[in-house]
């Protein structure tokens, strides 16, 4: 196998290949058919290199401050707390959406699952539950921002990658305070709010689990929970 990457080095200088690690940028195409950029660190000889990547079935995203992997996990009629607990079992947490690239990947996951299972609509639990205060006052400026949610995925700083069915205050008066991503052939990838601990409005059978990674080999399994 041959690997090529653009080396990061001071202008006008050459890296000391034998004496220290060499870091460079590269890219690849994920199973979502999206080009992903990542960093390769070349160490010591031409025989080995390490890179920040996810195991098969997990998608890699280079966030502003961390490297992030996420995957879709299935579980029938999953509640918000059960979704988070299931993600924790695999060393992950419920994931939010930090970029449009991540949002597009979720759409791809849901569209593929909906097509394969020939379902009219499917819903996925993602990170985000309204705070108790914002359940009472959902239309205030603070409550309509990311700060109006209790979150596990601290890497998401705003709603830039979120496209809401109506707006970020929706559903609060009906007790719907936890985020889901919708796929029904019309509103694919749009964000709606559903009940957190019961699923009377929707049959929610998917969750988005994510975790940060470093330049190490990860041992993940794509799980299906019964």
From TrEMBL:
Supply the InterPro entries for this chain: C-type_lectin-like/link_sf, CTDL_fold
* Source species, domain of life: Eukaryota
PANTHER family per the record? Answer: C-TYPE LECTIN DOMAIN-CONTAINING PROTEIN-RELATED (PTHR47629:SF1), C-TYPE LECTIN-RELATED (PTHR47629)
Name of the protein in question: C-type lectin domain-containing protein
